[in-house]
Design brief:
Elements (H helix, E strand, L loop, with lengths): L3 H8 L4 H8 L3 H9 L5 H11 L3 H5 L1
Length: 60
């Protein structure tokens, strides 16, 4: 399953490394989020803000 986070990142033409830099986190954290591994609410909200998504779609 390609999650909504990965799908949106690719749709916007971003690599994990680019998104991580924009969010202020590591590429590994983006990878974990895309794999469905729980991340903090704070980072879920930051990622969502950068991608223009609802943070709850990332945090689920």
């Amino acid at each position: 399953m390609m999650g909504v986070l990965k799908e949106e990142r690719i749709k916007q033409g971003l690599r994990q490394k680019n998104l991580a830099k924009m969010v202020g986190c590591s590429q590994q954290l983006i990878s974990k989020a895309e794999q469905g591994i729980p991340i903090s609410v704070i980072y879920a909200k930051k990622i969502a803000e950068v991608l223009g998504m609802d943070w709850k779609d990332i945090y689920e």
